[in-house]
Write a structure and sequence with these properties.
The protein is α+β, with helices and mostly antiparallel strands and 368 residues long. It contains 7 helices and 9 strands; from the N terminus they run ββββββββααααβααα. The longest helix is centred in the C-terminal third of the chain and has 146 residues, at 175-320.
Length: 368
């Protein structure tokens, strides 16, 4: 649809690149071409818009085969308007100068023309074809016949229409007939499936039998080998026991010989140790006796010398103090006694003792 704009009594039309615009005024063609843009007056202008792009027309129609079976044909026709001037002259492509919309339905007229023409050629083919043949080769036959019929149709070029391609999408019988036709094929497929299932089961049973036989043979072989293994283990155990017995006998003889040798060596060593111990004890006793005699002599000599020294010291002390008076001896005795007394840090004198001392000091001494 063209884009029309209003401005103060004038109209401006702007067409699409895929739309062929024809502008007449007073019976004269002023503008003619795709994608035009121009100003015009609505009262004096006659406008036509013809689409020149490729268009798809889907069509579905029913036909009857030679064996009186109804079928449905689904097809698509691609066409375009190759001569816009001729199409605008044969069909009403005029547009409203105010809205840009078509006044009529030109595309519907083209669709009806193409559908009826294609249907006529398809019916001619299917009317001479049985249902089974139509289902097998009907699509190709209908497509070729419809394409050839549309190309040879004189009205299409006279209207400026060019058919680009024809496609037949499907050709299907009535649902009941289709189900009936599917039944034998489905049964055959089911039979094939059942036969395949039975064969697969038979193969599985055969394989299971083979596996069972193999397992049984394996068990028999395993039992035979286990018997051989038991016999071989008994032989090995017997040989091992014999070897152990022989080794024990050899080990016992060696142990006895080694024990005898050890006993002899221990006896000889004991004899030698006894002799050495007796000799050493004798020498130690002699040395101890000699040392005891020497110590006794030394102690006796020391005691004698100490006693002599003490006697001489006492004699000298008595000799020195023989002529000293008694008071001096008392003083010396007190001094010697004081030297031998323990150290006294402090002396506590009670009042009674102090009173007695003071009383004695205050009493006059007797001159006698």
């Amino acid at each position: 649809m063209a884009d029309i704009t209003r401005r103060l009594g004038w109209r401006h039309l702007r067409g699409a690149p895929t739309a062929h615009i024809r502008h007449h005024r007073g019976g004269k063609l002023l503008h003619d071409g795709p994608g035009l843009s121009f100003w015009f007056r609505a009262l004096t202008a006659a406008l036509s818009e013809v689409p020149v792009d490729d268009r798809e027309l889907a069509m579905t129609f029913h036909a009857r085969t030679s064996d009186f079976q109804d079928v449905t044909v689904q097809s698509t026709v691609t066409y375009r308007i190759s001569d816009p001037a001729l199409a605008a002259a044969r069909l009403d492509f005029s547009v409203d100068p105010d809205t840009g919309a078509w006044r009529g339905t030109p595309l519907e007229q083209l669709g009806t023309l193409l559908t009826e023409t294609a249907q006529q050629h398809a019916l001619d083919v299917l009317a001479r074809t049985s249902l089974s043949a139509a289902l097998v080769d009907g699509v190709t036959a209908v497509r070729e016949r419809v394409a050839a019929g549309l190309a040879a149709e004189p009205r299409l070029p006279a209207t400026g229409i060019e058919v680009v391609a024809v496609r037949v999408v499907a050709l299907r019988p009535e649902p009941e007939v289709e189900r009936a036709l599917r039944t034998p094929a489905r049964e055959q497929i089911q039979q094939e499936a059942d036969r395949a299932t039975y064969e697969r089961r038979a193969v599985a049973v055969e394989r299971e039998r083979t596996i069972a036989e193999n397992e049984l043979a394996s068990q028999i072989e395993l039992a035979r080998r286990e018997e051989q293994l038991v016999e071989q283990r008994g032989t090995n155990a017997r040989r091992e026991a014999e070897e152990h017995a022989a080794a024990d006998a050899v080990r016992a003889g060696a142990e006895a010989a080694r024990s005898v040798k050890l006993a002899e060596a221990e006896a000889a060593r004991s004899v030698k140790l006894g002799e050495a111990e007796a000799t050493r004890s004798l020498k130690l006793a002699e040395a101890e006796a000699a040392r005891s005699v020497q110590l006794a002599r030394a102690e006796a000599e020391g005691v004698r010398e100490v006693g002599t020294a003490r006697a001489q010291a006492q004699e000298a002390w008595l000799r020195v103090h023989a002529d000293v008076d008694v008071a001096t001896l008392h003083a010396l005795t007190g001094t010697r006694l004081a030297e031998n007394l323990p150290h006294i840090d402090s002396v506590t004198i009670s009042p009674d003792v102090l009173t007695g001392l003071l009383a004695r000091l205050g009493t006059p001494r007797d001159p006698a």
